[in-house]
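Please think about what follows:
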Amino acid sequence: MNYSFEIKETIIRALNEDVKTGDITTEAIFTNNEIGKAKLIAKDSGILAGIEIFELTFKLVDNNIKVGTFKKDGEIIRKGDTIATLEGSISSILIAERTALNFLQRMSGIATTTNIFVDKTKHTKAKILDTRKTVPGLRLLDKMAVKIGGGENHRIGLYDMFLIKDNHIAGAGSITKAVEKVIEYKKKNNLNALIEIEVKNFDELNEAMSLPVDIIMLDNFSIANLKKAVEIVQNKFKLEASGGINMNTLVEVAETGVDYISIGALTHSVKAMDISLRIEQI
C-alpha cells in the first residue's frame, strides 16, 4: 500500500486530538524504558480492513515498535483470532493504542457491512456503491474500507465526477439547462469526468435520456418503477438506484436489473467491529 500524505496527515491529526500535551496516565506509571508485547485480538467475526493503517499509527508514534501481522485486509477474521502482535516501548504502545484501534474497528465494520450487501447481490449485475455520507476527515479511509469489503467508490468528492441533483436542477431551471451548463464547463476545462443526473419520475427520466449523460440515478423509485425504468432505458445508460435502500429491500432492488445501488448506510451508521489490544504482563 502506498501511504499518501493525506492519509498520514489524517492519522497525525487523530493522534494529536487524543494526546495533545501528553498521556499523563502512561507518563505517571511508565518510563520510556519498559519494553513489552501486545496481541491484537478479534472479539467479533467479519472482514478485516485497515491493518496497514493500524500499523502506520504505531510507527508514527514510535518507529521502533515491531508489528507482526497474521491477517491481511480483506481476509475473514473469526472471534478469538490473533490478528497481530506488537513489541516495543509500552509507553508508545499505550499512546497509539486507542487511535489505531479506532481506525481499525471502524474500517473493519464498514468492510464487513459492505461485504454482506455485496454477497446478497452477487447473483445480479448490480454493483454496491458508497456515498459521501462519511465522517468528515475520514473520507479516504471510509471509502478504502468499502473497496476492501468488495464495494465500489461512487465518487471521492465533489471534484472527480459531475452529479447533477435536484437542487442543481431547481437552481438551473431544468434538467436540460443543468446538463448543458455542465457540458459547457467540462469542455472549457478539458475534463474527463463522468456526468450523472438524478431523476425522480418518468418525465425526468425521459428528459435525461435525451441528453449526453453517462449515468442516471433513479431516486426513491419503487421496485415496480425501477423495473419499468430498466425496460425503458434498455441499457442505453447506466442506471443507479438510490434512496433508503436497506438489507430488507436490497435483493429486490438488485433483481430489477439496475447497474448500481448506492447505500449511505455503508458509512454513515456503521457498527464498528469489536477488536481489542491486550498487553502481556511483564
Summary: The mean pLDDT is 96.
